[in-house]
Amino acid sequence: MSRHDPLTLKLSLREKCAYGMGDLGSNLMLSIGTLYLLKFYTDQLGMPAFYGGLIFLVAKFFTAFTDMLTGVLLDSRRHFGPKGKFRPFILYAAIPVALAATAQFIANDFSLTMKTALATLLFMLFGLFYSLMNCSYGAMVPAITKNPHERAHLAAWRQGGATLGLLLCTVGFMPVQAMFSTNPSTGYLVAALLFVTAGLFCMGWCYRGVKERYVEARPDHHKPSIMKSFCAIFRNPPLLVLCIANLCTLAAFNIKLAIQVYYTQYVLNDLHLLSWMGFFSMGCILLGVLLVPATVKRFGKKQVYLGGLMLWAVGDILNYFWGNSSLLFVSFSCMAFFGTAFVNSLNWALVPDTVDYGEWKTGIRAEGSVYTGYTFSRKISAALAGFLPGIMLTQIGYVPNAVQSADALLGLRQLIFLWPCGLAIIAAITMGFFYQLNEARFTAIIAEIAQRKKHEDLAEPKLVINTSRKLTN
């Protein structure tokens, strides 16, 4: 055993930074699709918005199940060397992710049917390899540290990286694309290539900088499966509640991101405002992320999570009624995005706690099944968030590159503000009434798990402690 108490072991600033770089790299490759792929489909490929929504729906449902397969793969690994159980997937899966992300922005003159089929296939390939990369990255946290405060720090660094990636894509993608005004399709491709290259660099940084200390192989009698990943959700009440809340919050966040480019162009008549809005609102998210560890230490994860949801909802309500000018839109958006910082950060801090809860309840530690069970709900949420804007744009009468009708403008305002606000309120009710895994109970669970292991007499040890200073890359 390690001479350090796992509950008090501190991580270095360098390792926390490296971990945060992983979600920076992930989001540089993911956010270009979240923010601009629907617009690329409608404005460059000439596809109806309804078709774009269907592509998101089909591809995201597919990747929800690939997340489950990733969990089975991770939990099936019993022999792993100094590179660790999770780290190899972070690096090696990043390359096909980058290739697929870039290929999605290649224009073509195929028929509508061929365009739709090719776009769906590329999105599915992107999702498949992104599952391998990102699920391994997230499931690695319990192997890095058992200290709940350090997990909160890692979650904050992760959300900081994700926010920075989203900020860079929001602020930088369209200006790069606009440099090719005579050939907009080429601009999309060049911008995508630039961002995925930076994303690959960040994933390599993460791979080299993190360390797996508590790596656990599954017992021979435990056979992972997709069904067990589903059961991991329903037999783990805190995880189930978190999945439901996250289903709402991620859908709300992605709807807002997908519609804001349309809102700034057609409602506020200032497409360049998108970069400024992204700069200030994402800056507010970064500020919120920096405050997460201190606020969690003082008030607890659940209370901070609920407070973030309330700020989010109030910001959207104010924007719906009074966000008709650029200044007020940016101001109220900053309030809403400041609230999302606490929500999105704590989503990742709460998942490792449910891993320990599952081990306490069942005796089996299954990071992969728990984490991918959770990401299954996120992908279902993302599928709905990608589908709904495409459907709603069609329903409100959106016409690409034209002056919009009054009904279409009202529909854009409802879609970017009222829908996310309503979903945030549902998430707050769910977490407030049903999430019971607080700090005191978590500490008692960890202590009981440790006590159990002291009295176990196993022929093969389950826990492998890596106490070396540096892993071989």
UniProtKB/TrEMBL annotation:
<keyword id="KW-1003">Cell membrane</keyword>
<protein>
    <submittedName>
        <fullName>MFS transporter</fullName>
    </submittedName>
</protein>
<feature type="transmembrane region" description="Helical">
    <location>
        <begin position="186"/>
        <end position="210"/>
    </location>
</feature>
<dbReference type="InterPro" id="IPR018043">
    <property type="entry name" value="Na/Gal_symport_CS"/>
</dbReference>
<feature type="transmembrane region" description="Helical">
    <location>
        <begin position="382"/>
        <end position="403"/>
    </location>
</feature>
<feature type="transmembrane region" description="Helical">
    <location>
        <begin position="273"/>
        <end position="292"/>
    </location>
</feature>
<keyword id="KW-0812">Transmembrane</keyword>
<keyword id="KW-1133">Transmembrane helix</keyword>
<feature type="transmembrane region" description="Helical">
    <location>
        <begin position="230"/>
        <end position="253"/>
    </location>
</feature>
<feature type="transmembrane region" description="Helical">
    <location>
        <begin position="118"/>
        <end position="140"/>
    </location>
</feature>
<feature type="transmembrane region" description="Helical">
    <location>
        <begin position="415"/>
        <end position="435"/>
    </location>
</feature>
<comment type="similarity">
    <text>Belongs to the sodium:galactoside symporter (TC 2.A.2) family.</text>
</comment>
<feature type="transmembrane region" description="Helical">
    <location>
        <begin position="50"/>
        <end position="74"/>
    </location>
</feature>
<dbReference type="Pfam" id="PF13347">
    <property type="entry name" value="MFS_2"/>
</dbReference>
<keyword id="KW-0472">Membrane</keyword>
<feature type="transmembrane region" description="Helical">
    <location>
        <begin position="86"/>
        <end position="106"/>
    </location>
</feature>
<feature type="transmembrane region" description="Helical">
    <location>
        <begin position="328"/>
        <end position="351"/>
    </location>
</feature>
<feature type="transmembrane region" description="Helical">
    <location>
        <begin position="21"/>
        <end position="38"/>
    </location>
</feature>
<feature type="transmembrane region" description="Helical">
    <location>
        <begin position="161"/>
        <end position="180"/>
    </location>
</feature>
<dbReference type="InterPro" id="IPR036259">
    <property type="entry name" value="MFS_trans_sf"/>
</dbReference>
<dbReference type="InterPro" id="IPR039672">
    <property type="entry name" value="MFS_2"/>
</dbReference>
<feature type="transmembrane region" description="Helical">
    <location>
        <begin position="304"/>
        <end position="322"/>
    </location>
</feature>
<dbReference type="InterPro" id="IPR001927">
    <property type="entry name" value="Na/Gal_symport"/>
</dbReference>
